């Protein structure tokens, strides 16, 4: 069990005052973590850092700013008419990723992409994609937290490869280390 009082005190010391909606987002993630049976707190720290970054610190499942405008995935899919821009805690994008993740989790994300904004669904997408990357058949990127945090490795910057290559890897690594400190 995560000591929530200690966690929130340390998060506030590092990141400042939290809104109730941010606390609710943290709670959804912490609850999923505790239900998952996972134990490496570095994994949880990196999950929290990813959510912090990808949601613009709202800790809520959000839509990608611009909704994919100007990006190749930002056009309506000819099969469904939906645009598969980033949604959720990790900004799930692309038709194929909505299809794969929907099959894994049992949600019709292809025909109802806004489901990726539902807190419960968004948390499950994030955990599946980040902790079980191999079962997600190559995407998010085919990488998962076990590649970067295990008995012999601790790579806070490299873990960004799970979500978005090397984009903002130092910034997110810094967030992750702060969250890790709050979790200890």
Give a written overview of the molecule.
This protein is 45% helix and 2% strand. With 184 residues, it is mainly α. The chain has one domain: Lysozyme (Orthogonal Bundle), CATH 1.10.530. The protein has a two-stranded antiparallel sheet. Helix 2 packs across helix 5. The longest helix has 17 residues. The radius of gyration is 16 Å and the shape is globular. It starts with a helix and ends with a helix. The relative contact order is 0.16. The model has no long low-confidence stretch (mean pLDDT 94).
Order of helices and strands: HHHEEHHH
Give the overall shape, derived from the CA principal axes.
globular
What's the helix count? 6
Please identify the oligomeric state.
Answer: single chain
What is the total number of structural domains?
A: 1
CATH fold topology: Lysozyme
What about the largest sheet?
2 strands, antiparallel
Uncertain regions spanning at least 5 consecutive residues: none
CATH 2nd-level architecture: Orthogonal Bundle
- The total strand number stands at 2
What fraction of the residues are assigned to beta strands by DSSP? Answer: under 5%
Spatial strand arrangement across the major sheet = 1-2
Instruction: Note the gap between the termini.
Output: 11 Å
Give the mean pLDDT. 94
Structural class given helices, strands, pairing? mainly alpha
């Amino acid at each position: 069990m995560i000591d929530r009082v200690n966690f929130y005190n340390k998060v506030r010391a590092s990141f400042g005052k939290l809104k109730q909606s941010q606390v609710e987002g943290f709670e959804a993630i912490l609850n999923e973590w505790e239900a998952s049976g996972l134990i490496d707190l570095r994994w949880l720290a990196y999950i929290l850092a990813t959510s912090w970054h990808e949601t613009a610190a709202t800790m809520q499942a959000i839509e990608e700013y611009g909704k994919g405008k100007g990006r190749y995935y930002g056009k309506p899919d000819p099969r469904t008419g939906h645009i598969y821009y980033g949604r959720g805690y990790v900004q799930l994008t692309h038709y194929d990723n909505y299809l794969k993740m929907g099959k894994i989790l049992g949600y019709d994300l292809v025909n109802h992409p806004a489901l990726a904004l539902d807190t419960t669904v968004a948390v499950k997408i994030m955990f599946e994609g980040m902790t079980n990357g191999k079962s997600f058949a190559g995407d998010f990127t085919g990488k998962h937290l076990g590649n970067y945090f295990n008995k012999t490795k601790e790579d806070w910057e490299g873990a960004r490869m799970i979500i978005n290559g090397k984009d903002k890897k130092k910034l997110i690594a810094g967030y992750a280390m702060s969250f890790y400190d709050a979790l200890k």
